[in-house]
Structures are given as structure tokens and as C-alpha cells.
Amino acid sequence: MSGILTRNCVATVIIQQLFNGLALGMAYALIAVGYSLVFGILRLINFSHGAVYAFSAHIALLFVGLNFGIIPAIILSIVLTGILGVLIDKTALEPLRMNNSIPMASLITTIGMSNIIQNLLMIFFNTERKSFPAFFDFGMIKFGSVQVNSTQVVMFVVSLILLVFLTLIINKTKLGLAMRATEQNSKAASLMGINTNFVISATFFLGGASAAIAGVLISGYYQIVYPGMGFMVGLKAFAAAVLGGIGVLYGSVVGGLVVGVSESYAATFMGSSYRDSVAFIILILVLIIRPTGLFGKKDIKKV
Amino acid sequence: MLKISNLNTFYGHIHALKGISMEIKKGEVVSLIGSNGAGKSSTLGSIAGLVRTQSGNVTFMDKDITNMSPHNIVKLGISLSPEGREVFPALTVQENLRLGAYTKKDKVKMSESFTRVYDLFPRLKERIKQTAGTLSGGEQQMLAIGRALMSEPQLLMLDEPSLGLAPNLVLMIFELIESINKQGTTILLIEQNANMALSVSHRAYVLETGNISMTGNAKELANDPRVKKAYLGIG
Ligand SMILES: Nc1ncnc2c1ncn2[C@@H]1O[C@H](COP(=O)(O)OP(=O)(O)OP(=O)(O)O)[C@@H](O)[C@H]1O
Ligand SMILES: [Mg+2]
Question: Does residue B94 sit at the A interface (CB-CB below 8 Å)?
Fold first, then answer.
């Protein structure tokens, strides 16, 4: 009798943690596509992306505090974070590209940018943890005998919709075509009349905006915001992008889900001290077997 | 239509173009001949805005386009089919051509351009959905030329369009050059096959290590003993 009961309990926990992991994973995927998009077009790992994510949460919180209402605050956060992405490229990375400097210089610059953004957040918002409104908590939803937290469903569905939307932009629009052309051969793209610097800006904007959506979702989920919040999440999303095959969009989604679910199970069954390391253990194992990640292509030669 | 005066281009310390001047009039086919490394591609790159120039200038239809960005130069009506094809390997034939017409807003004009290119290269039409990277070398060359035509340029620059093509296709490319020119497009051509190039050109310039060593009427150049010896393999 009690055996059945515990088995039921375990099954419930497994299912609940699965939903928790899928919801988090989708949000990670939204951040991961930012790494992936920028990597695709510049062959650069943008280490400022985690700080950009933290920025978005603080901006949303700022406007909520100014009584803008949650939806306008989110929209402002998305736009301003997108613009921050563009500014990072315009002020720091584009000048390096123009001077044909070595790739390492850009990489170090993104790390520097990450520190600058994080420190500015500390200066303007101070370092303490601030609470963020649980703006999409509609209680529990029942699927048959399984109860699911509505925040998880919202997070999953909103992220999924945005990922589909991003995919459509990239595969069906003129801008998307220009992005794919620039990614494959930026010199030839410029000969087609494509302003490649504009395309790169658009890429940074989309990456920043996606991170902002993830930022408000995850902040609304954990209800906590602080300047250093982007560090671990940024690393995990980066792991997700590499896991799926950086530069491949659906790879980021699968990578995000793997990271999210494994984190969720690790925290439950191995203790919360494992929650942050499991993603990287999986990443290392996958890279040993498939160096290009799960769906990675052999690197297209960058001309 | 196009005027280059005293153009100097460097790659680091390599002085690739040493103050060259040339001119192309509307309706002409002009070819640029010279041995490997003479600076032919650098000349086209400097016109198209791919390569920065140190001094001198390029004017196109009385507009100074020196060191303008490539994407703005395309908008003015100059199109380059670059050396080595440079098609987008993971995009389809149709997407590659669509990109060629990137600067065109008019949907009707664009579909006319598609029709024109597919008429010129029926082979491409059969492969609309195939990715460019899986085309044969010759087909990629057709795609590169077709793509350059999609913007309906006033000035079409072709950098070794017949490279790697079978002899019958080479003939076809040269016939194509003549017919595109008859339809009103001015052409600046680079060809290893100087003989063929001179036969379709009105005029030509001979480049030697960054300097223009000879210029003149294509027929006269083809009969010049120095040209014959150095570039036509005769004499
Ligand atoms: N990106 C570059 N960096 C350094 N040097 C270059 C670069 N591009 C060209 N050069 C040099 O400039 C000179 C002219 O090159 P260019 O490509 O214009 O020659 P070309 O006449 O087109 O030759 P080919 O017939 O072999 O195509 C060469 O000496 C070449 O080595
Ligand atoms: Mg050349």
C-alpha cells in the first residue's frame, strides 16, 4: 500500500520537475539563440549576452516601479535591451571588425562589456536582490491527474511562440534572407546590395530582444532580480547553444530543453548543489562524442 | 560612364594598383587583361568598394564613388560577378538569384529579371530548389553571372566568368556577354582567355604589376606583337 503511494509520489515529482525543466529550458533556448545568431554571423561568442539578459530584467523592474504597468514595462525592456545589443556591437565590436583585428580581441571585448554592464547595474540598482512581480501566475492548471503550475505553461508557450516567430523571420523574410547570406559570405552579401553592418545590428537587436523576453519570464518565475543574475544563466544558455550546435537555431531549442530538464532533475534528486553543474557535465560528454554539438554542421568556411 | 583616375590601392605593404587611370563609355565592352597578380581583380574590387583605395578616385555617371560601401555602389547600378563565384552555398538557386535583386523593390521588375535569367540559363531553372553548394562548378558560374544580372546593372563587371567551364560553355558565356551588351548593359570583363576576351570587346587595357602598360582598340591590341607574345601565346 505505502509502496504504491511512494511510487505515485515519485511519479508526480518526476512529472512536475519535467514541466519545470521544460519551462526553464525553453527560456534558456531564447537566450541561447542570441549566442547562436551572433555566432552564426560573426563567428564570435558574445560573452556580454548574460549581462544583457540581467539588464533586461532590471529595466523591466525599473518601469514597473515607475508605475508603467507590467506590459508596457516588458515592451520597453525588450526594445531597450535590443538597442543595448546593437550599441555593444556599434561601440565596441564594429570598430574592431573595421580594423580587421584578431578574433580574440572581439572575444575579450565582449567579456569587458559584460563587466561594464553588470557594474553599471550595480551602481544604478545596487547589488541586493529585488523582488519581481509574479505577473503570469494564474494558479495551478490540471491536465487529467497531473497538476501543473500555470507559470510553467506560460513560460513554455510564450518562449515557444517567440522561437517560432524568430524562425519565421530568419527563413521567410527579406531580412532573414540577408542574415543567412551575410552569415555564409559577407563579402558576397555586400555585393548584392546588403548593408551587412545593418544586418549585424539587426542580429544583435533580435538577440537582445529575445534575451529580454527570457529575462522577464525567468524573473517573473523566480520573482528575483539582481545584477549578477545573468552570469550562471548566461553560461547555461551558452552551454545549451553549444550542446545543440552553435549557429543552428533548433539546436539551441533542444540544447535549452536538455539543460533545463537535467538541471531540474539534478536539483531534485541529487541536491541543489548539483543544479548548476549538471548542464556542463552533459555539455562536456556531448562534445567528446560530437565536437560540433548535437545538430552542428561542419563549420562553413568564413570568407 | 565610369572613370578611374590615378587610383592607388595597397594591401598592407603590397602596392597592388600603382596610379591607374581608365575610362569606360556607355554601351562598351572593355576587357582588362594581364598575367596573374597584375591587379585585375583589385581593380574591380576597388570599383565595387570591396577594397579601400589610398588615393585617386572613381566616378560613375558623374558621381564620385571612391571608397563608397559596396552595398551603396550596387544601388547606383554597378554589379560584380566576383572571382571564384562566391555563391551562397547553403541557399537555393532561387534564393541566390533573389539576393541578386536585393536592391530592387518592384515585384514586377523582379519577376522579369527572374524570367530573363532563367531564359539565359535554363539549367538554373531546372535546379531552382537545389542548394548552390551542390551545383557543379559550371552551374555555379552560371548562377554567379545570373545573380549579378538580377539587379539589372548599368555596368556589369565579370571577373573570369569562363573559369573552369567546358569549351562549349565558354563559347556560350562569350555569346551571352555580347547579347547582354546588345541589350544595353555596359561590361567590364576580366578573362584569362585574352583571345576570346578581345574578340568580344571594343577596347582593352593591359595591366602589368599594377600599371596600365597598354590600351587601345581590341582588334589592334589583338594584333600587337607584344600582346600576342605575352597574353595570346603566339609569336
Ligand atoms: N587580400 C589581399 N591581401 C594581400 N595581398 C593581396 C590581396 N589581394 C590581392 N593581393 C595582391 O595584390 C596583387 C594583385 O592581385 P589581384 O588579385 O588583383 O591580381 P589579378 O590580376 O586578379 O590576378 P589573377 O589573374 O591571378 O586573378 C597580387 O600581388 C596579390 O598577391
Ligand atoms: Mg583575379
Answer: no
